[in-house]
Fold this sequence. Notes:
A two-stranded antiparallel sheet has the order 1-2. The protein has helices spanning 43-52, 62-73, 89-98, 117-133, 147-163, and strands at residues 4-5, 33-34. Helix 3 (89-98) packs parallel to helix 4 (117-133). By secondary structure, it is mainly α. It is elongated, with a radius of gyration of 19 Å. The chain has 5 helices and 2 strands. The protein folds into 2 domains: 4-73, no CATH class; 86-163, no CATH class.
Amino acid sequence: MCPVFAGGKPERDTRSKWYLSETEWKDSVFPNYCTGWLYISTPRTANRLVKMAPTEDFLWIDDVWVTGYLAAAANIKHINLREYFTMMWEKAVMLKSAQNDEIYHNDIIASPTGRQREIAEVLTKNAERCFKAKCYNNIYKTKPADKESMAAQELLNRVLPTYLPL
C-alpha cells in the first residue's frame, strides 16, 4: 500500500542528479512505483521483494527499483493510497488544522515536512487531536450524505487550489 506513481519517465538530461543513461534504464517509462515517503507492506510481501533482489538488475533509484521493478518482477500489485498523501507540507498543515467533528474533510496520513521540526509537530498535534475527537473525515467516518458537509468539502476543494496547487 502506497501512493502510486504511474507513467514516470527516466531523466535523460545529463545535468540532472536523477539522470539515467539508456544503459542503466532502457525503457521510456518506469513501472508503477511507490513514493519512498510512505509504503506499507506485510512481512510476506517484503520477503518476496528481498528474494527477488539478487535475481534482477540493480537500479540506484531505490523507490523505482524496490517498489516498481522488483514488485513487478514478483507480480506484486499496489494498493494506491494517493488520496491520503500530499507532496506539499503547506497543504497538509491546512488540511489537518481544518479538521473537526462537524464538517467533513478529506484527510491525509503522510506528507513531507521540509525537514522542519515545527511542521512535524503541528501535523502530529492535529493528528492526535483528530484521533481523540474522531474527526469527521475519510479516515474515521464514511463520506457524508448530508448536503451541508458535502458543500463544505466541495468549497474546500475549489478554494484550496487557489492558494496551493494540488
